[in-house]
Amino acid sequence: MITRLAFRSAAQRPLRTALLLGGYGLGVGVTVALLSIATALLEQARDRELVGGGDLTVLPAGIDLETFRTGGVSSMYFTIEQAPFLYREVLRSARHEKGILSAAPWIDDALLYTRLGGEVIPVAASGEIPSLSEALGVPPTLLSGSWHDRPADRAWQTPDDSTLYAQIDRFHRPPRGARGDPTWAEWHYFNVLLPGGRGWLYLTYMIAGDIESGQWGGRMLATLVEAAEEHERAYEAEVAPAEVEFFHDRPDVRIGASEVRLGPDARYELVAVLPELEGSDTLRVRLSIHSPEKRYVPPLEIGGELASGYTVPILAGAAEGEICAGGSCTSLHEAPAYHDHNWGTWRAVTWEWGTVRAGSFALVYGGVLDSGAPAGSPFLFLADSLGFRRVLDVGEITYEWGSRPVGARRHPRPTGLRLLARAGGDSLVLRARTDHVRVTELTGEQGERRLFFQLRGTARLSGTVGAETVEAAGEGFFETWSTEGEDGMLGRPVGGRLVAD
Questions:
Q1: Which residue has the higher pLDDT, 27 or 160?
Q2: Are 412 and 403 in contact (CB under 8 A)?
Q3: Distance between CA 105 and CA 88 in Å, rounded?
Q4: Which of 159, 219, 233, 495 is disulfide-compatible with 164, CB 3.0–4.6 A?
């Protein structure tokens, strides 16, 4: 009956029936097409080979995840900054060894240019580490030959400590924007605590000047502080270029009779011989510094108009050896030590900096200011017994200030500081009280008096990182700057506000 009615209706109204059937068929066709596309997208999203081979894919912060639909993770030529550090100290760290079974770097269709017969040709290049891709279960299909890790692949994954330090602590060539700039400088900085908290040593190996034109040289700086008597001796030596030797593939440097050598056992061997700045004493240092636990900050560079770089190869180290000054020698065994490395142009540049050991935690914070304006985002790097823990943004640094006489003048004296750092739901508060303050007077380009403060004091760290509550106390070193007018009044300190003592 229904069939007969349908045919009679079609015979009486053929145009209407054709239009109805056409519209219905179009709707069904569109639905089928959409379902087919959705199924294909779902299958591609589940295909490990199309999304890097893992259950999770690491992408640069801030990108649009919709780019997955444009052809894959690396089709837009994304790169991951600090990829070796991320792989070694996060994805494959002891902290996550139970949760992350395998991880692998992956570069797909990176755009390169090569010159062939005088013609520049664009080339699409891909790269993987064989053993890591196999561990993820997505090795490429070999048509012929063999595919295995090379020494460079193994060094990228797990370099020995000596190789790692050579990679991150080497000396640098001035970048294009800094070539010919006489304010270019690069230096190793060490500080070492004397036994029993009796004092400490600041030690700097520096090269500075216009290296390309030959207008440069080496400089040694040292300050030996006796904490009980608040007495300090300053030492300095300048050396001509002919007596300086440094390298672009390792941290070794020789400045006159002083030198730093990185041994095959990943120990820094330090020798320093330099005269007292205002006196007849000679400082003689022979130390071996190593890191019992691998805690380091990878090389960081600030771009733009300011060329500035920074790395901390040894955040919490130990020193052995001897320091001789003032007619006596002090022997060190497993003495707390710290080492960082700086490079860049330093005209009208100041900074905020500090490093603290508190319980099982070690941290360093810092920020560079170019002519008083931040040249990069201040950060706090936190490590514990398992290595790298968290990077947080420094929100504010507040100082408390008093004053004390230095010679014929009264200088401001930072008596304490409070630092707040946050990242996501994590936050840390660092509070410190200063026990010792060293003030260095400098004159700025505009004739203003600038004061550089090197502080030593006790510190307390509190807050939350992940699911852990942090409460620890220890000691630290800190540095900050201020300005002082001709009338002796203190100007606003860099990075902090004035608080009456």
A1: 160
A2: yes
A3: 11
A4: 159
Determine the distance from the C-alpha atom of residue 203 to the mean position of all C-alpha atoms in its chain, rounded to a whole number: 22
Average of per-residue pLDDT values in the chain? 84
Structure tokens at 353: 């900096």
Tokens of 379: 């950060």
Task: Identify the DSSP state of 493.
Answer: P
Q: What's the whole-number mean pLDDT along residues 436-450? A: 77
Do 86 and 103 share a structural domain?
yes
Q: What is the dihedral angle through the alpha carbons of 109, 115, 117, 120, rounded to the nearest 10 degrees? A: 80
For residue 62, the Cα-to-chain-centroid distance in whole angstroms is 19
pTM value is 0.83
- Please give the tally of structural domains in the chain: 3
CA distance 35 to 19: 25
Chain mean position to CA 449: 31
Asked if 362 contacts 390 with a C-beta cutoff of 8 angstroms, the reply is: no
DSSP state of 88: I
Instruction: Please tell me whether residues 405 and 338 are part of one structural domain.
Output: no
Measure the CA–CA gap between 322 and 324, rounded to whole angstroms. 6
Residues 308 and 396 in one domain: no
37 domain-assigned: no
Q: Which residue, chain included where needed, has tokens 């009338």?
A: 487
User: What domain range includes position 70?
Assistant: 65-158
Show the tokens assigned to 421: 């750092």
- Residue 378 domain-assigned (yes or no): yes
**Three-state secondary-structure class, residue 32:** helix
Same domain, 82 and 222: no
Contacts of 396 (CB under 8 A, 6+ apart): 419, 420
206, 284: one domain: yes
Cα 111 from Cα 108, distance rounded (Å):
9
C-alpha–C-alpha distance, residues 140 and 49, integer Å: 9
- CATH number of the structural domain spanning residue 250: 2.40.370.10
Q: Which of 287, 319, 344 is the last residue of a domain?
A: 344
Strand partners, 482: 451
Segment 345-356 shows an average pLDDT of 88
For residues 239 and 360, state if they share a domain: no
Cα radius of gyration rounded to whole Å, the chain: 31
Six token digits for residue 192: 């070492």
Residue 426 burial (CB count, 10 A): 18
Within-domain flag for 41: no
